[in-house]
Amino acid sequence: xxxxxxxxxxxxxxxxxxxxxxxxxxxxxxxxxxxxxxxxxxxxxxxxxxxxxxxxxxxxxxxxxxxxxxxxxxxxxxxxxxxxxxxxxxxxxxxxxxxxxxxxxxxxxxxxxxxxxxxxxxxxxxxxxxxxxxxxxxxxxxxxx
Amino acid sequence: xxxxxxxxxxxxxxxxxxxxxxxxxxxxxxxxxxxxxxxxxxxxxxxxxxxxxxxxxxxxxxxxxxxxxxxxxxxxxxxxxxxxxxxxxxxxxxxxxxxxxxxxxxxxxxxxxxxxxxxxxxxxxxxxxxxxxxxxxxxxxxxxxxxxxxxxxxxxxxxxxxxxxxxxxxxxxxxxxxxxxxxxxxxxxxxxxxxxxxxxxxxxxxxxxxxxxxxxxxxxxxxxxxxxxxxxxxxxxxxxxxxxxxxxxxxxxxxxxxxxxxxxxxxxxxxxxxxxxxxxxxxxxxxxxxxxxxxxxxxxxxxxxxxxxxxxxxxxxxxxxxxxxxxxxxxxxxxxxxxxxxxxxxxxxxxxxxxxxxxxxxxxxxxxxxxxxxxxxxxxxxxxxxx
Lengths: 145, 387
Ligand SMILES: Cc1ncc(COP(=O)(O)O)c(C=O)c1O
Ligand code: FES
Fold this sequence. Notes:
The structure holds two protein chains of two kinds.
Chain A: H1 26-33, E1 46-51, E2 58-66, E3 69-78, H2 81-94, H3 99-103, H4 107-113, H5 122-143
Antiparallel strand pairs in A: 1-2, 2-3
Helix pairs in contact in A: 1-2, 2-4, 2-5, 4-5
Chain B: H1 11-17, H2 19-22, H3 33-52, E1 60-63, H4 66-80, E2 87-91, H5 96-107, E3 111-115, H6 125-131, E4 136-142, H7 154-164, E5 167-171, E6 190-194, E7 205-209, H8 235-273, E8 277-279, E9 290-295, H9 300-309, H10 329-334, H11 338-342, E10 344-348, H12 355-373
Parallel strand pairs in B: 2-3, 2-4, 4-5, 5-6
Antiparallel strand pairs in B: 1-7, 6-7, 8-9, 9-10
Helix pairs in contact in B: 1-8, 3-8, 4-5, 8-12, 9-12
The complex binds pyridoxal-5'-phosphate (PLP) and FE2/S2 (inorganic) cluster.
């Protein structure tokens, strides 16, 4: 069953075997296979973490803030493709925004940017958004007043 | 490499089936010659299938597959023996076709004991014996597990069932045509098998019902299948199932030795080349075609998708649970840590898998694991690997 496929970002063709392939949009697969802003920030100004008690998956977000704006943002995620793609997308959306604007990002918005998620995977998108919120709270705690 | 989910129909099987769609289309219950040809095909198929498990041909009931066979065996035996008792014994790692049937019976007032398994997924026959009460009417244990491949001590459990005069059902969907089965020496009263796991058509299976064992049919209807499963027989599928069983039975010894060698080669290669990897299930008492890996700091679905992009079809847990977020009940039974249960990968081999495929997968898995681990945060004790 080892056959090469031509392109990585194309939706895999339907196979005889029952796999998860085909349940995600091309955007999700692209962000999953080639995530943006992946990594850690060593001297981060704030870190946020969010875990999913059902599946045990977990997202870490690192922030660098300057003049109240998110100057740099990186993530590391142990999770399914939906969790990884939404982590990648949330960092794209948040980068350059003020922290107040970033706080307003919703998981629905992130999912929409990815062309939608299967309904059973919507709760995975909560992780990244929650991690961002927790990172901003961490920032407030450490740096304000 | 997902043969435990299903398998491609072999060309010999398709060839055997074809005449039964257009030329030999008769109803096996009809007395004219078309009907008689169908009836002869049925008879022969029954004989072939019976031989695989050392049964008599009139002990084989054709059904729509493994799920129906499990339902018919368990509900059929429970309803037929209600006045004798209301207690059933099974294991906690059965296929949903058994587990959910048991749950339904619980709603109807039956009592069910779900036996635990050890860390390799084995049922201890002593636990079976201890669970028996004066009300026990059925013991149902799978021959081998579909997710982790562990083979259960069926012969020992059969002896216990016989000693106590309790009916014994075996879900042999993963082993029929793959491991040798003898319903007589194993003291089996009821045994489920399915065609699509052995390169036969889907939607056809069988239940072996030992002579003299009473089961209540699930459907009301005609007299087909010895009054146990009414409905006009699916002759073409039955012929295909029999052909697949005949081929699997004939090639069993050679094929199981070949797959065992390929299996162990891949296990050895991956365990030695990937840090923080482990084998789920039993190292020796396992299906020749089943491998189930766990990787620290790797989520199963993500790994599946990366491998899929490399042209390798595998599964996490079982195919049925791939739309479910909760970790597999089988992995949780052998390892209560849900994070570990979540990161599993099942590779199942079959007829068309060659040496070169194994070499390709042996190289691809470490690469895919590495790609995922680049994204994994370092969490002490969770994603860190003890050296
Ligand atoms: C152990 C086991 N039992 C039962 C079944 C159900 O069989 P079927 O798909 O033929 O209904 C399967 C496979 O799906 C299985 O692996
Ligand atoms: S399944 Fe765990 S985050 Fe998606």
